[in-house]
Design brief:
Strands 4, 14, 15, 16, 17, 18, 19, 20 and 21 form a 9-stranded mixed sheet that branches. The protein has an 8-stranded parallel barrel with strand order 5-6-7-8-9-11-12-13, surrounded by 5 helices. It has a 3-stranded antiparallel sheet with strand order 1-2-3. Strand 17 and strand 18 form a beta hairpin. It is of the alpha/beta class. It has 2 domains: 133 residues, Lyase, Ornithine Decarboxylase, Chain A, domain 1 (Beta Barrel); 260 residues, Alanine racemase (TIM Barrel, Alpha-Beta Barrel), CATH 3.20.20.10. The N and C termini lie far apart (60 Å). The structure holds ligand LLP.
């Protein structure tokens, strides 16, 4: 992946930086991001739109990995930003991200979050349901502010992926149903509003998608309804936000297309649909990739500790992190690939399982992997952990969250400090008296 190399002495380098040195300097577990690869992905997406001469926004879905540094990088690369909570919004603004390039998602935005976003003059709200529309309109009326919105609709497409990650199908907590008239009702209401400007339509059909068919089907469905709305209420969207969900290769089992292929298929389908709308201008196409921008740019370094061999059954090797820094194997049965980062030139001939150190049998990072026989203190590099790793990390077992470093051109920069034990009890409020229950 990206700038990774194996040196003659068997050491893995990322961005020209030796991973053993990184482990020494910053400790483990450690998330390492190859920022050149993130830039390459960001430019890759944008270049397709430029080449096709289609107005666009590529919004980084910051839920995949959120901290100030990645938002600065996104800003530098000309990306917009998708946030889904007051916390993500706060982080973006704190990083200096231009508010007009921020899109606010979420199926239950609180009044406080809406007011915060309006005050910050964000680019647009992605309105998820009718209750939110009413609340947003009321707050705008009360505070005499106007805002742009996209209406998030559920086109009823089931993209082929893991059940928990499905979001585009009909029975979903997200979005306005297009099939049963919910979306049309919301659209009429929003169009009648003096304070809301309906920029367009949004849909997101799922995550870790390997085919273009889900996207093109969603576009076809959307255009059926856009046709109806055009005819009945004379509304035609200026923006079509087609969400994220582009798959990446975690292991050799995964067969994603290139990011460019997904985008090109989307553009082609929209262009084809536009043939039925002479006189209407082709909408801007917005996308919001998360995983495909940062996923394979991230590698987690762990130190190997104890081992347990059950002859004829399984050999467990335990690392100094686990489900607290990567919940995906336990939550989605997600698979990962790994190597010994300090012995990458040795033959990977032994079958084993990588366990975390949390107090739970399900805390496994990799069930079956071939590695050189590891020794205590060896460094394990687990690949493709850049998306939904740090952002879904927890303090289960009061594990401290790892540090994050960015590497590029032979230089490393710490962008999130490792949590300390003191950090863990920062918000704890001790009982006034120890005898309270006596
Ligand atoms: N836009 C919307 C509205 C979304 O709901 C999501 C992801 C994205 C964009 C970005 O999707 P991506 O390009 O990253 O696939 N925690 C799960 C993934 C949950 C995705 C939720 N929504 C995982 O670890 O696989």
């Amino acid at each position: 992946y990206g700038t990774m190399k194996i040196e003659e002495n068997g050491h893995l380098t990322i961005g020209g930086v030796n991973t053993s040195d990184l482990a020494k300097e910053y400790g483990t577990p450690l998330y390492v991001y190859d920022t050149a690869l993130i830039r390459e992905r960001a430019r890759g997406f944008q270049n397709v739109f430029k080449k096709e001469n289609v107005p666009y926004q590529v919004a980084y879905a910051s839920k995949a990995f959120s901290c100030m540094a990645i938002m600065q990088l996104a800003e530098e690369e000309g990306l917009s930003l998708d946030v889904v909570s007051g916390g993500e919004l706060y982080t973006a603004l704190a990083s200096g991200f231009p508010p007009e390039r921020i899109h606010f998602h979420g199926n239950n935005k609180s009044e406080e979050e809406i007011r915060f976003a309006l005050r910050s003059k964000i680019g647009c709200f992605v309105v998820d349901n009718e209750d939110e529309l009413t609340l947003l309109e009321d707050i705008c009326q009360e505070t005499q502010q106007e805002t742009a919105i996209l209406l998030r609709v559920t086109p009823g497409i089931e993209a082929h992926t893991h059940d928990y990650i499905l979001t585009g199908q009909e029975d979903s907590k997200f979005g306005l149903d297009v099939q049963n008239g919910q979306a049309a009702r919301a659209l009429k209401k929003a169009l009648n509003s003096e304070v809301l400007e309906v920029l367009g339509i949004h849909c997101h059909i799922g995550s870790q998608i390997f085919e273009t068919a889900g996207f093109t089907m969603a576009i076809q469905t959307l255009f059926r309804f856009i046709g109806e709305w055009d005819e009945k209420i004379g509304y035609f969207p200026a923006v079509l936000n087609l969400g994220g969900g582009f798959g990446i290769r975690y292991t050799e089992e995964d067969t994603p297309l290139s990011p460019e292929t997904y985008v090109k298929a989307m553009i082609d389908e929209v262009k084809e649909q536009m043939a039925n709308f002479s006189g209407r201008q082709m909408p801007e196409i917005w996308i919001e990739p998360g995983r495909s921008l940062v996923g394979d740019a991230g590698t987690t370094l762990y130190t190997i500790g104890t081992q347990k061999d059950i002859p004829g059954v399984r050999r467990y090797i335990a690392v100094d992190g686990g489900m607290s820094d990567n919940i995906r194997p336990a939550l989605y049965q997600a698979k990962y690939d790994a190597i010994l980062a300090n012995r990458a030139n040795e033959e990977a001939s032994q079958l084993m399982s990588v366990a975390g150190k949390c107090c739970e049998s399900g805390d496994m990072l990799i069930w079956d992997i071939l590695l050189p026989s590891p020794q205590k203190g060896d460094l394990l590099a687990v690949f493709c952990t850049g998306a939904y790793g740090y952002s879904m990390a927890s303090n289960y077992n009061r594990m401290t969250k790892p540090a994050v470093v960015f590497v590029e051109n032979g230089e490393a920069q710490l962008v999130v400090r490792r949590e300390s034990y003191e950090d863990l009890s920062l918000h704890d409020v001790p009982l006034r008296k120890h005898s309270m229950t006596r």
